[in-house]
Amino acid sequence: MVVASAAKGEKKTPVTIDDRLQLFVDRYLIDALAGAELRLHSPQPREVAIPFDRPWEGPVSFYVTVRVDGDTYRAYYRGQPGVGHPEVTCYAESKDGIVWTKPALGLYEFQGSTENNILWMGEGTHNFTPFLDQNPAARPEERYKALAGGPLIALCSPDGIHWRKLRDEPVITQGAFDSQNLAFWDSARGRYAAYFRGFRDDVRAVLTATSTDFLNWTEPEWIDLGDSRPEHFYTNATTPYFRAPEILLCFPKRFVPERTWNPEHGHPGLSDGLFLTSRDGRRFDRTFLEAFIRPGPDPENWTERNIGIAYGVVPTGPGEISLYWVEHYRHPTCRLRRGVLRTDGFVSLHAGYAGGEALTRPLLFAGKELVLNFATSAAGSVRVELQDEKGKPLPGFSLAECPAIYGDELERVVRWRDGADVSSLAGRRVRLRFRLQDADLYSFRFRG
């Protein structure tokens, strides 16, 4: 199969990618596909990371945030033994994102003792959601920031442990805040961005606002989901991808209120996790309508409000990234599960044994070599061709001059017969033609 969209010679606006990492999470870079597809990959479940088993935690613990700061992984979550009991904000930490401890912080008293991991007992414990502020202008005493409560209040901390309000008055007042409402420094666009719940035509939806100082926010707007059918997004877990921060990853917990799997549970509704992306912070791509994380065979996950994906995607090993989600909500075994993907492995450009091709839009790159994150079978392969913007193969970089690439690598340099140096093409409008057979291509970048 051959992609032929550019053969007519039509000119299209080039995409400037320079030396930035490019992922196939949507069709933004793709001009044409033939025999290939974008394939969503679900995280592979691993161990129970954090059981919510302390007396102040319990079966309705929820709204988890996971972040890494230097060599310390930090988890924040709501602890609540049951409906009607006090809510507290709890803390756990790890050196690898796999084995977690709950340090005795000595900050707040619970049943006569401060030997607990309670981090916050002030306003906003229901949905306290912090982040490590990457704004280069952030003050040292405000390295961490958080949104909490409803209306939303702003908090800050120098170390992620000791918190105070930035001001008494709420900073965002328009919305319906019974959710995990979050914010982060959007380095690609030079502003703070917040994503929080609203109801649109009686459906749980997501609002967004931006700020330059974390205190004064723009008028909230609905995120744009195109023409996709409205679904309840109970949470959103929107975060920049740490390897490509211009891409926002969004992991809504889809809530299906009309379904009940276990009538004896007493609470209606089922949930799973979704995968969306955005390249501008407001328009979110729904290429994948299917579940990113299913409830699976565990019957305790087939009750309401499970599979709540935590806010945060973190590296946990060579070639591995981790996500976390809440299981067994409203059950005595309520806990946080870890799941893993290969680095950049959310979506791949995939072709089966019959083979397939993809052609990109015209690109403007910087660098001297092309690097792929890919995997093939023993009989599979990837080949790459560089074309001019009209679709004509460039001498020295045609498909016929690219030896078959096979294996499973995160950073494989593409070589043609005369070598790997593509610096002569930097700054020119070029297209990439990928030919795959029984292969997955997760990302690429020009470097050097």
Count every helix, treating DSSP H or I runs of 4 or more residues as helices: 0
- Which structural class is indicated by helix and strand composition? mainly beta
Mean pLDDT, to the nearest integer, reads 96
Overall geometry: globular
Helix content: under 10%
**What is the C-alpha radius of gyration, as a whole number of Å?**
23 Å
- In total, how many beta strands? 35
The CATH H-level superfamily of the largest domain is Glycosyl hydrolase domain, family 43
Supply the CATH class of the largest domain.
Mainly Beta
Low-confidence stretches: none
Question: What does this entry look like structurally?
Answer:
- The protein folds into two domains: 5-41 and 347-447, Jelly Rolls; 44-342, 5 Propeller (Tachylectin-2, Chain A).
- By secondary structure, it is mostly beta strands.
- The chain is built from no helices and 35 strands.
Question: Main attributes?
Answer:
Jelly Rolls, 5-stranded antiparallel beta sheet, single chain, 448 residues, 2 domains, Tachylectin-2, Chain A
Summarize the structure.
With 448 residues, this protein is an all-beta fold.
What does the secondary structure layout of this molecule look like, with pairings?
Blueprint: E1 15-18, E2 22-23, E3 30-34, E4 37-40, E5 44-51, E6 62-69, E7 72-79, E8 88-94, E9 100-101, E10 118-120, E11 129-132, E12 144-149, E13 152-157, E14 164-165, E15 182-186, E16 191-200, E17 203-211, E18 221-222, E19 232-233, E20 239-241, E21 244-250, E22 253-256, E23 270-273, E24 276-278, E25 284-285, E26 308-309, E27 314-317, E28 320-327, E29 335-342, E30 347-351, E31 356-360, E32 363-365, E33 369-388, E34 408-413, E35 430-447
